[in-house]
Amino acid sequence: MTDTDIKKGLAGVVADYTAISKVNPETNSLLYRGYPVQELAESCSFEQVAYLLWHGELPTDDERAEFEKHERSLRPLDERTKKLISALPTSAHPMDVVRTAVSQLGTFDDTLLRPGGVTDANLNEGRAMYLLAQLPAIVAFDQRRRRGEDLVEPRDDLGYAANFLWMTFGEEPHEVVERAFNVSMILYAEHSFNASTFTARVVTSTLADVYSAVTAAIGALKGPLHGGANEAVMEALDEIKTADAAEKWLDDALAEKRKIMGFGHRVYKNGDSRVPTMKQALDTLVEHYDRRDMLELYEALETAMGERKNIKPNLDYPSGPAYNLMGFDTQTFTPLFVAARVAGWTAHIAEQLANNALIRPLSEYNGPDERHVG
Ligand code: SDX
Fold this sequence. Notes:
By secondary structure, the protein is mostly helical. The chain contains 16 helices and 3 strands. A 3-stranded antiparallel beta sheet has the order 1-2-3. α2 runs parallel beside α16 (333-354), α5 packs antiparallel against α10 and α11 (229-240) packs across α15 (316-326). 42% of the residues are buried. The structure holds s-citryldethia Coenzyme A. Residues 9, 191, 194, 224-227, 229, 259-267, 309, 311, 314-316 line the site of s-citryldethia Coenzyme A. The site of s-citryldethia Coenzyme A (SDX) has 22 residues, from loops. Pathway: Carbohydrate metabolism; tricarboxylic acid cycle; isocitrate from oxaloacetate: step 1/2.
């Protein structure tokens, strides 16, 4: 076996079929169940998109109403979840809090212990909905308690995006903010075999339960080469401060061989299909909050990175400053990604189970030759 036989990072390896989404780097396009993500972001709610990812079709009006009613009914946090989150140190990263809270949700689910309960498709659909409904409340409560604020209970008269913002900030969002947030959730919802989704599929392939797979996926998403990049983008922009400092900051960072967060992608080499849509949403927020300075800084770093390295932004680049303008704490950005991506993760868990094969690749041994003790 030669080095070229080993696919480091599984780059270029096609590991399985999926009917959930198609990432096409040649055309810079992304389809969810056949629909261009831009069209979904323009016309749909996050709930409709979650339905699409799980069921393969957009909901009819009746299906949508039933789905929304179910999601809204599952929003309030259990007392045990409130207690758990309250007991965790505020010095811990919010991703660790989300991971721990989701793991605990699995311990409440007695149906896992039924014969066949782990792999039952109907039960798993219910679990997916439960996680989708609970994650906003977990993320919002965690940000609030870090700010010394009390929990805000969910409202069942608000859609997913408006309720998420309501629970986080304790006030109904302006429609511009609600719309931009809804767009971000749709764009983050699904992206084929990315590292966290693949992690969920690996865990599922052993016939472990949904909560274990999602908990593991959250761990994979935390790293800055994956979901953690959206908060790292904001840290960089905070460090640079103003547009006129961007070029020098970038030259210094590249000279130190630092990775520039929010740029580059394993699959897209000529631009991330989701960036133009998220950039438009960012533009609306810049106007709403009257923050041209943020836009100038954003564009200065993007231009300099294009000139120096010809590397384009990924979705985390516009979403970082967008979440900042909305008022989220920087460390809450990756938990927002979790709340959205759980729709995709759970769709992949169902797809994996429907046609399962244990995921277990080979390795080429390059350690010491056989030797013996004594
Ligand atoms: C997400 O997979 C998905 O679909 C993920 C995602 C999803 O929706 O699930 O799209 C979400 O994770 C987006 C990516 C977020 N990560 C970042 O923004 C971190 C910064 N980006 C890079 O580290 C990098 O671009 C990766 C990790 C995203 C991709 O890495 P690859 O495919 O392993 O490529 P590489 O690191 O080998 O880079 C190839 C070359 C290298 O230069 P050379 O050694 O060939 O000279 O490009 C350079 C890299 O140094 N490069 C960068 C860079 N990205 C690539 N140089 C500086 N800064 C960067 N951001």
